[in-house]
Amino acid sequence: MKIKFIILVIFTALFLQGCDDQLEIPQSDNISSDNLYNTESGALAGLAGAYSRIVAVYRQAEINAQYPTNFTDEGHYNRKGTKGFLKNNFTASDPSLNRTWGGYYEAISATNTYLANLAESKLDENVKQVFLADGRFLRAFVYFDLQKAFGGIEGVPMPLEETSKQLLPRTSGLDVYKQIISDLEYAEQHLPTDAEATPGRPGKGAARGLLARAYLYIAGEPFNEVGAYEKSKEWSKKIVDDPFYSLNPSYQDVFDQLAMEQYDKNETIFQIGFSFANLDNNQSSKLGSAFGFLVEDEGCGKGYSITYATISLILKYRSDPSDERGMWNTSPYYVPRGNNCNFKTINTQFRYPASKYRRFLESNNSNTSYGPHHWPILRFSDVLLMYAEAENKINPGSTVALDAVNKVRNRAKATPLMEISDELIQEERLLELCFEGHRKYDLVRWGKLAEKVSGTRIMMQSLSTDANFVNEDWSIYGEPNLGPDGIPLSGDEPANLDIRKNTLHASFSYFDGYNDFDPSKHYILPIPEQELGINTNLKQTTGW
């Protein structure tokens, strides 16, 4: 049976408003709030309500996409002025921060309600276990997002079923991860295999992959948990050794399928689905418009491209021209207005949008902001790189780690590595997984965020004022009519030809987020001030 992501199947009828304890569905379904969880359709509806909260948080492409990318060595925000927590000049009273925090805790509340009610249901025990596993996977997933963004060593409040209505203090970060691991272990035991799982719902592989990721997070800073690398290797190896999983032969096709709402479970082990059915913005997201390929023409699938790639990332890709990921993730092209949806060359290398997500491939891209573009949570290439990272920490210089990384590079047609190190694995994560919501969190656990922020700022400022720095993309991929200085003699050149010489345009504040970075506080988001006013048991994060 052709089934989309669970919320896409029943979301329109069952979407929950606020943080209700009960789910109302049409009485014609012969299900009331008293017996909702006694039927599979009722349990499915309750699960859809919990999943809908994740859609609500992710739909703006902020906490999952732009925040982990902006003002790292991966990308930067490309607008002037304050934009909430997407730049480093916000405060704990920022409304977007409170909205994100509140959305996550609505998801926690809905999931705890779902788990509590399901535990009392009369469903067959085997069926119930699978639904409970779904719920515990979802709770682990939400707490993982919360902890890595807001928690740190001090952690976040952690209500469970029995404390769902209480105003709680912070739970230590390590204990939050222990609960995440406990939930994922239960999910891994009772979920179906990925071959059997409904597309859009987690299988054993999704739970195993998040377990491997969780152990990597506590293996690194600030926790440095002994034995965590061994556990990460153990869980990732279960996926690596399973013949069900494989790399899509085409890197590009992985993201084409996400744009077209398809499922490639052999590579994309878990993804968040969105829908633009019935032109409903509540089910759709801004992933394609805010975070993808630049398209200025509304009739061609509008793309605002709010986040741009750093010059350092672009040059890493161009240093290995055989690496197909470079031209896909940092494209030198865009679609201007009035050009019949055809490509033209980007004006300056400092204005390369994060081009991994191509909105013009969506089934319905008629809305200028929202569409059905799916979001990748866990890919097989990520698991291979987690496996390599854990293995190389245990056995430095390991050929096993080298082979795992080269599998990822071989798919991209990148030059194979001849040796392996922690630094090379870390760079490979940037090249393979850029713009998928990992970079800032990776740099934090490696203890390298401040180093990369500073280094990227220095490099960008230096190259932007270097009259001898030439953007080779223009001569290789650009308009053919170029002068000796690499500037087009005629055609689509801007009024200020200095842009072609890589001088930063005055209308964009490229360095604001780098200059405003404070290593004493910007490794983590603060607890929203509104939440501190409501819950007096909470203490603000150190540094804020």
UniProtKB/TrEMBL annotation:
Places the protein is found: Cell outer membrane
Main location: membrane
Domain RagB/SusD, first and last residues per copy: 331-544
Keywords, alphabetical: Cell outer membrane, Membrane, Signal
A Pfam match: SusD_RagB
Residues annotated as domain SusD-like N-terminal: 56-216
Listed GO CC annotations: cell outer membrane
Similarity annotation: Belongs to the SusD family.
Protein name: RagB/SusD family nutrient uptake outer membrane protein
